[in-house]
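ZP: hey, is the NAP complex queued? I don't see it on the tracker
AM: it wasn't, my bad. submitting now with these inputs:
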Amino acid sequence: MKQEQKDLKSQLVVVAGGAGEIGERITRVFLQQGARVLVPSRSKEKLNALRASLKDTSTGELLPLETDVSTSEGLKTLSAAIEKEGVLRVAVNSVGTFWQGPSSLDVPVDEVQRVFHETFFPYVGLTQTLIPALGPGTHFVKLNGLLSLQAMPNVSAFGVSATAQMAWTRFLIAEATASTPWITELVIDSFVRTRSRTLPEEYISADDIAHEILRIVTEENQHQIATIGKGPGDAKVEFVPLRPQASEKNLKRLFGSFKAMG
Ligand SMILES: NC(=O)c1ccc[n+]([C@@H]2O[C@H](COP(=O)([O-])OP(=O)(O)OC[C@H]3O[C@@H](n4cnc5c(N)ncnc54)[C@H](OP(=O)(O)O)[C@@H]3O)[C@@H](O)[C@H]2O)c1
């Protein structure tokens, strides 16, 4: 069902990771809609670079916030800034990094722990900060990569975190109530053209992703896990909602067993 929620003028939007490659384009698209966009970053230099790269955007208001969203102090600072700025309409989580290394049997446990710690727990903290700040009918959108759905060699430490992040989103959706914002996890299943990664025109761009997020938060009215991608051979951006992996009957049976166990 579509909902009339198009006007983002003066609305408060948080883009966590907004000083990053894809985040910058998401921030730009919301500013173009006249939104006030709060962007937390650990780095003053990155926030200055973001401001400089957005200086051609005359609408909206950029609200840079120097803070580390992977710490509980940083999340408190983010919460306080949201409270000060008013009602939150959209939150996007474009926080992320990448890791490649030895195979699953060779990677040191400490390294798996470090990668998991630096990538999974910031997502948990951000959801616990941003989702309660969003009201019903608003939107929370999280970016992820194909490793959340598919295993490949030599990326296991990162892949288990991507998979865990996806699982966390599924639990958030399973626990959603009438006052929970609409939750979308958007799995990017191709390379992305960004400022620093120049790829042929056929690949999906950070702008394509930003515009899809804008479409979701202004038109969609549901919780969803979806993939987005485009590459050589494809004519246009493909957005595909993913089916649940277990049948409804089996899920009901298991849920019934949990209930019976008290
Ligand atoms: N680029 C791609 O080709 C691609 C493909 C598939 C999926 N994705 C996903 O899309 C999202 C954005 O990707 P991107 O390429 O734009 O990433 P990016 O340029 O590396 O930026 C991500 C942002 O995440 C923040 N960040 C990373 N690790 C953090 C940590 N431990 N604690 C706090 N903040 C942290 C950084 O914030 P600071 O400003 O504080 O440094 C950075 O600005 C990620 O979830 C990524 O997995 C990207």
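AM: back. The chain has a mean pLDDT of 95.
ZP: great, adding it to the tracker
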